[in-house]
C-alpha cells in the first residue's frame, strides 16, 4: 500500500513525463519487454498505469518547433504551408523500400499487455484499488483499438492479431494475411466495447487519461469512418468485394453484404455518439467579434494550460516547462504566421451569421478587400479563430506608450518558419499571455478528444442512415449553430445553397468525382469543416467521403487573401515603394504570385520553376486514398524472396516496386 500511495502522489508528474519525454518514462527505466515476466511486473495498479500511459504517444498532440496540432490541416483545401505534400503530385508519392504504415510495434505491446494482465485481473492477482485496476485494463483495449484504427485509415485491409507471436517465420508469415477492412473495423469496435465496460467516466489522473466517454467517442468515429468509406468507395478496389479488390482469391472465408455492413456501422456511430453528446455539454461562446477573446471560454479552451475545467474537453495533454515538458505553439501562433494559413476556399465557405452563404442575395457580405471586412457579420468561429490586423495580441503587456499590443499585418513575404502563408492567419490556439510566447516555455494544452465531435458524428450518421434530419440531429445541429452565432434554422442555409458555387471553395462538394446533389448532406459536411478548422480532421474526412477524384481531371490551385487590392499597401517601405516582387520578375527573387493571374495570393505560384511540382495545382491519383505497403514486407512474407508470391497483397494502384509511384 505504501508503494501505491507514493505512486498516486507522483501521478501528475509521472503522467506529464510520459506524455512529454520518453526518457522520463518510468516504465522505460525498467526491464525491456523481452525480459519482463508476470512474476516481476504487472503485479500492481502502478505497473498497469505506467505501461498504458507510456503508449499515449500515439495520440496527436503538440510537439516540436511549430504550431503543434493547429498545423495538422496543412496540405488540404483548408490550410496551406509554404511547402507542399507529394500526395498532391501523382508519381511523386512512391512505394518505400522499407518502413511505412505496415508496422506492428504498438499492436504487439498492447497484445502483450492484454494477454498478461487480463488473466491476472480476472483471478484477482493485481494489487491496488479495484476500480483503478479495472480502468487500466480498459485502457489496454482502448489503445489497441486506437492503433488498429490508425491502420485502417492508412491501409484499409489489415491482419487481425490478438496475441503476441513467437519469432518463427512460418507463424509470422501466416499471421500477416490481411483481413477485409470491415472485419478490422468490427474488431476495433469489439475492443472499444470492452473498454467502455471497464473504463471510468472520471478516470484516475482526470482528463489527462482515457475515459469511458473517450472510448464512446472513438467508437462513433470509427463506425462513421467505416460506414462512409464503404458508402462512397462502394464498387471500387478500395472496398472488399469491389471491382479489382486485390484481396479477391487471397482472403479466406470472405463474404460481405455491403448494405448490412453500412447499416451496422451507422447504427453503432449514432448510438455511441448520442451517449457522449447527451452527457458532454458544449462550452459556452460569448460571441465576441475576435478583438479580444481572452474571456471567452470557447476561445480559451484551445489555448489554456489547464483544460480540465472545460466541460467539452474529454481528453487533453498537459505541459509543464518546469519539468522540461513544453511546446512552442504560441512562440509561433501569437507572434507570427507559423508557416501556415487558412485558404480562401475555407474562409469563403463560412456562412454569414444570418445563415446565408456569402454569394447569396441579401447575405450582407462586406467583401474581401480587407480581412476585417471578411470577418464582419460572419459565423463567429471565423471571427474568433482567424486573425485580423488591429486585434489584441497580448493582454498582460502594453507598448511603451501604454497602448495595447496588437496583431500586425500578416507577413506573407517573411521567413518560411514564421510566414503567414496565405494572409489568412490561424488564431485557434492563440494565448494572450506573454509567457506562452517565450521559446521552449509554452504550456498550451493539447486537446485529444472533445464533445462537439459527437454532435457532428451523430448528425452525419443519422442522415446517411435515415435520409432525414431526425429530432436528435435537429437538436444537435441547432446547438452547434447557436454557439457559432449563426441562424439556428439550417433550412435557410440549405435553401440558399448553390452547389456550383460551393464547388469553387470546397473539395467536399464532391464524392466520387460527382458534385453532390443533396444540399442538406453538403451542409452537414460544411458544419464539420467549420467546427474543426485547424484541428487535423480534414484530410481523413476528404478521403472517407471520396472527395478528391475530381482533382485527377481538374487540378486545384490554392489561394489566400486578396493581396492585389487595397491590402497591397500594407507591404511598402518607408518611402512608399512596394516590397512585393511578383513571380517571374526578371533578375529578382519573387515573394508573391502574379497579379495578372489572380488578385488572390497563390502561395504555390510564387516559384514557377519545374522543381515546384504543384505550381499548376493539386492533382490526385485514386491509389492515394490508401498508403502503399513497403516492398520489404512482401519479401519477408514470401517463400522465395519474390514479392509476387507474398501472402500480403499491395494496395490498389500501387506497384510492387520500390521508389515507384502509383499507377492511377
Show the helix and strand layout.
Layout: H1 2-9, H2 11-20, H3 45-53, H4 105-122, H5 130-155, H6 169-175, H7 181-198, H8 212-232, H9 258-279, H10 297-300, E1 313-317, H11 329-332, H12 344-349, H13 371-375, H14 380-385, E2 392-398, E3 404-406, E4 446-450, H15 452-466, H16 471-483, H17 490-496, H18 499-502, E5 510-511, E6 514-515, H19 519-531, H20 538-544, H21 631-635
Antiparallel strand pairs: 1-4, 2-3, 5-6
Helix pairs in contact: 3-5, 4-5, 5-7, 5-8, 7-8, 8-9, 8-15, 9-15, 15-16, 15-19
Explain this structure to me?
By secondary structure, the chain is mainly alpha-helical. The chain has helices at residues 2-9, 11-20, 45-53, 105-122, 130-155, 169-175, 181-198, 212-232, 258-279, 297-300, 329-332, 344-349, 371-375, 380-385, 452-466, 471-483, 490-496, 499-502, 519-531, 538-544, 631-635; strands spanning 313-317, 392-398, 404-406, 446-450, 510-511, 514-515. The protein has a two-stranded antiparallel ribbon with strand order 1-4. It has a two-stranded antiparallel sheet with strand order 2-3. Strands 5-6 form a two-stranded antiparallel ribbon. Helix 15 (452-466) runs antiparallel to helix 19 (519-531).
Question: Which descriptors apply to this entry?
Answer:
two-stranded antiparallel sheet, 664 residues, two-stranded antiparallel ribbon, 4% strand, mainly alpha, disordered N terminus, 34% helix
Query: Beta fraction of the residues?
Result: under 5%
Q: Name the helicity range.
A: 25-40%
Q: In terms of structural class, how would the helical and strand content be classed?
A: mainly alpha
Q: What number is the mean pLDDT? A: 94
Strand order, biggest sheet? 1-4
State the shape.
globular
Order of helices and strands: HHHHHHHHHHEHHHHEEEHHHHEEHHH
Our count of helices gives: 21
Assembly context of the chains: single chain
Give the strand tally.
6
Q: Let me know the largest β-sheet.
A: 2 strands, antiparallel
User: What's the alpha carbon Rg, rounded to whole Å?
Assistant: 25 Å
For the record, give the distance between the C-alpha atoms at the N and C termini, rounded to a whole number: 62 Å
Residue stretches low in confidence (pLDDT < 50, at least 5 long) are 1-35
Amino acid at each position: 500500500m505504501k508503494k501505491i500511495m507514493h505512486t498516486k502522489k507522483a501521478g501528475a508528474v509521472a503522467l506529464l513525463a510520459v506524455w512529454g519525454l520518453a526518457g522520463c518514462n518510468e516504465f522505460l527505466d525498467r526491464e525491456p519487454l523481452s525480459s519482463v515476466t508476470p512474476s516481476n511486473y504487472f503485479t500492481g495498479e502502478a505497473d498497469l498505469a505506467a505501461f498504458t500511459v507510456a503508449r499515449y504517444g500515439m495520440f496527436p498532440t503538440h510537439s516540436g518547433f511549430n504550431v503543434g496540432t493547429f498545423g495538422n490541416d496543412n496540405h488540404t483545401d483548408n490550410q496551406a504551408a509554404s511547402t507542399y505534400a507529394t500526395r498532391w503530385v501523382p508519381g511523386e508519392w512512391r512505394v518505400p523500400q522499407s518502413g511505412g504504415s505496415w508496422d506492428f510495434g504498438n499492436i504487439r505491446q498492447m497484445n502483450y499487455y492484454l494477454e498478461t494482465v487480463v488473466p491476472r485481473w480476472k483471478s484477482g492477482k493485481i494489487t491496488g484499488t479495484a476500480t483503478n485496476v479495472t480502468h487500466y485494463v480498459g485502457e489496454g483495449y482502448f489503445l489497441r483499438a486506437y492503433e488498429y484504427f490508425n491502420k485502417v485509415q492508412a491501409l484499409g485491409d489489415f491482419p487481425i492479431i490478438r496475441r503476441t507471436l513467437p519469432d518463427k517465420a512460418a507463424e509470422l508469415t501466416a499471421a500477416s494475411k490481411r483481413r477485409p477492412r470491415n472485419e478490422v473495423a468490427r474488431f476495433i469496435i469489439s475492443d472499444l466495447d470492452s473498454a467502455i465496460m471497464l473504463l471510468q467516466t472520471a478516470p484516475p489522473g482526470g482528463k489527462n487519461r482515457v475515459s469511458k466517454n473517450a472510448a464512446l467517442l472513438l467508437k462513433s468515429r470509427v463506425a462513421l469512418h467505416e460506414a462512409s468509406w464503404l458508402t462512397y468507395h462502394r464498387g471500387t478496389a478500395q472496398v472488399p468485394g469491389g471491382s479489382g479488390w486485390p484481396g479477391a482469391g487471397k482472403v479466406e472465408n470472405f463474404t460481405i453484404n455491403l448494405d448490412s455492413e453500412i447499416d451496422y456501422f451507422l447504427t453503432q456511430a449514432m448510438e455511441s455518439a448520442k451517449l457522449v453528446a447527451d452527457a458532454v455539454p458544449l462550452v459556452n461562446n460569448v460571441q465576441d467579434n475576435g478583438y479580444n477573446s481572452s474571456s471567452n471560454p470557447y476561445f480559451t479552451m484551445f489555448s489554456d494550460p489547464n483544460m480540465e475545467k472545460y466541460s467539452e474537453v474529454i481528453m487533453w495533454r498537459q505541459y509543464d516547462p518546469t519539468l522540461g515538458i513544453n511546446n512552442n505553439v504560441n512562440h509561433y501562433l501569437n507572434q507570427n504566421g507559423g508557416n501556415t494559413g487558412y485558404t480562401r476556399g475555407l474562409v469563403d465557405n463560412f456562412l454569414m451569421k444570418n445563415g446565408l452563404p456569402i454569394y447569396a442575395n441579401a447575405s450582407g457580405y462586406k467583401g474581401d478587400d480587407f480581412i476585417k471586412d471578411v470577418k464582419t457579420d460572419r459565423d463567429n468561429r471565423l471571427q474568433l479563430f482567424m486573425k485580423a490586423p488591429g486585434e489584441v495580441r497580448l493582454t498582460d503587456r502594453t507598448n511603451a506608450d501604454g497602448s495595447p499590443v496588437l496583431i500586425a499585418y500578416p507577413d506573407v513575404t517573411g521567413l518560411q518558419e514564421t510566414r503567414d502563408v496565405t494572409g489568412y492567419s490561424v488564431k485557434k490556439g492563440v494565448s494572450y499571455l506573454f509567457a506562452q510566447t517565450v521559446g521552449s516555455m509554452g504550456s498550451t494544452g493539447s486537446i485529444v478528444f472533445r464533445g462537439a465531435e459527437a454532435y457532428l458524428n451523430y448528425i452525419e450518421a443519422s442522415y446517411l442512415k435515415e435520409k432525414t434530419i431526425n429530432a436528435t440531429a435537429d437538436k444537435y445541429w441547432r446547438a452547434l449553430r447557436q454557439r457559432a452565432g449563426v441562424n439556428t434554422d439550417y433550412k435557410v442555409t440549405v435553401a440558399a445553397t448553390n452547389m456550383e458555387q460551393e464547388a469553387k471553395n470546397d473539395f467536399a462538394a464532391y464524392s466520387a468525382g460527382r458534385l453532390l446533389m443533396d444540399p442538406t448532406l453538403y451542409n452537414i459536411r460544411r458544419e464539420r469543416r467549420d467546427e474543426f478548422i485547424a484541428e487535423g480532421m480534414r484530410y481523413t474526412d476528404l478521403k472517407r467521403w471520396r472527395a478528391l477524384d475530381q482533382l485527377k481531371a481538374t487540378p486545384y490551385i490554392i489561394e489566400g487573401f486578396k493581396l492585389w487590392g487595397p491590402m497591397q499597401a500594407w507591404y511598402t517601405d518607408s518611402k512608399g515603394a512596394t516590397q512585393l516582387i511578383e513571380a517571374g520578375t526578371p533578375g529578382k527573387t519573387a515573394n508573391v504570385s502574379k497579379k495578372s493571374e489572380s488578385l488572390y495570393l497563390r502561395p504555390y505560384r510564387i516559384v514557377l520553376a519545374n522543381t515546384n511540382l504543384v505550381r499548376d495545382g493539386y492533382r490526385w491519383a485514386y491509389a492515394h486514398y490508401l498508403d502503399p505497403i513497403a516492398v520489404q514486407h512482401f519479401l519477408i512474407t514470401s517463400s522465395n524472396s519474390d514479392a509476387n508470391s507474398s501472402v500480403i497483397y499491395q494496395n490498389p494502384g500501387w506497384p510492387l516496386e520500390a521508389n515507384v509511384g502509383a499507377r492511377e
